[in-house]
């Protein structure tokens, strides 16, 4: 939250998104603040903090996404077709299995990252 507030204080905007094949961090800012923007992006990628409260919020959102996919035949079919149509890492589901969500915490993510 502190990073977002500092960025917004300079008129900037940060964002992140993920898909099956990529993860994107973005930072919109005025030209004068580009050095700070690069520093924030690099620090976010190289030295992330995995705070349990934030992990819990993301897990709650992920659980909602899992339920949404299960209720939406088009999204569910896309996931199933991906599982049978590809091999290797790209065949992994985009949405985590519910049983995996029960054991994920900040420590596990930190260990995986490092």
From TrEMBL:
Annotated GO molecular function terms are: metal ion binding
Family recorded in the similarity comment: Belongs to the peptidase M16 family.
Extract the Gene3D superfamilies matched here: Metalloenzyme, LuxS/M16 peptidase-like (3.30.830.10)
| Pfam families membership | Peptidase_M16
Q: Which InterPro entries does the UniProt entry name for this protein?
A: Metalloenz_LuxS/M16, MPP/UQCRC_Complex, Pept_M16_N
Mind telling me what this protein is named? Peptidase M16 N-terminal domain-containing protein
Write out the GO cellular component annotations: mitochondrion
The segment(s) forming the Peptidase M16 N-terminal domain are 2-97
């Amino acid at each position: 939250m502190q990073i977002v507030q500092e960025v917004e204080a300079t008129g900037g905007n940060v964002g992140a998104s993920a898909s099956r094949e990529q993860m994107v961090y973005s930072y919109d800012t005025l030209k004068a603040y580009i050095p700070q923007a690069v520093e924030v992006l690099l620090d976010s990628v190289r030295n992330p903090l995995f705070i349990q409260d934030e992990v819990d919020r993301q897990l709650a959102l992920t659980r909602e996404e899992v339920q949404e996919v299960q209720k939406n035949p088009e999204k569910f079919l896309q996931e199933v077709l991906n599982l049978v149509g590809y091999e290797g890492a790209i065949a992994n589901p985009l949405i985590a299995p519910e049983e995996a969500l029960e054991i994920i915490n900040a420590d596990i993510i930190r260990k995986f990252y490092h």
